[in-house]
What we know:
Elements: E1 2-3, E2 10-11, H1 21-58, H2 60-69, E3 72-73, H3 75-78, E4 84-94, E5 98-113, E6 116-127, E7 132-143, E8 146-153, E9 159-161, E10 168-171, E11 174-175, E12 180-185, E13 188-202, E14 205-218, E15 224-233, E16 237-247, E17 250-259
Antiparallel strand pairs: 1-2, 3-11, 4-5, 4-17, 5-6, 6-7, 7-8, 8-9, 8-10, 12-13, 13-14, 14-15, 15-16, 16-17
Helix pairs in contact: 1-2
Amino acid sequence: MVYCKNCGLQLEKNFSGTSCPNCSQHERKLKDNGKNKIYRYAGFGAVVIAIGLTFLFFTSSGEKLRMKYIGIDLLPYSGLTEPGTHKMKNTFISDDETSNTISTITNKGEKVIDGKSVYEVHTTNYNPEYDYTTEYILFYSYSNKGMLKVGLAKSEDNIYWTEEEEASIYLPSKLKFGEEYSHKEGDEVLNITLEGMQDIQIGQRTFKNCLFIKEKLIGSNGQISSTSEFYFAKGTGLVKQSETRYFEGEATYKTNMEFID
């Protein structure tokens, strides 16, 4: 006699399976339901992951989380990648003098010059008091070492190149909140710290979620040479800066910069 392994129903002698038709159908339904649950859970998990990634990479709150735990790419805040022109007002303050200049900064974007991939930035400084203008071009490289000032020129026909190992830094490539990054600048050491994000009001314009960065330059004698604060707006670059210079521990002068157009 042949019996169903599940329900015990007697089967015909020539029956080739081990379960009766009813039990076999029930088993298939259970398997199909199991597969459907797996697909549903997998689909739900994919949706959750997609929502999480969208939050992390496409919202300001997610950006703040990445800044705290993962680190944030500073290149989009540097202003180097977005071709365009804007102006900055510069104020020089010392014990016996206050003067103003206007800088016109033109970002030319990424180029290949002399076999080097660089970001090209033209700056024109105008002193209205003396009706005097100076111009120069800076070239920045970008790598895991940061955004480095590797070239200086009066014109593109005569560029003075600096090796990356000896170049000054504009910004690190990546920073975490509260993290201090150190870069050797000749005989001095520049310490750069990402303090957080802030909204900055300049005139009638508000720059949202600017990176707030502090710098401290330490001389070869171990004393502070300068302290600076910077605010970088995503897609625009530097919108506000203040710097204090020191000599033998005493503040000698200050410079302030603000976006004006």
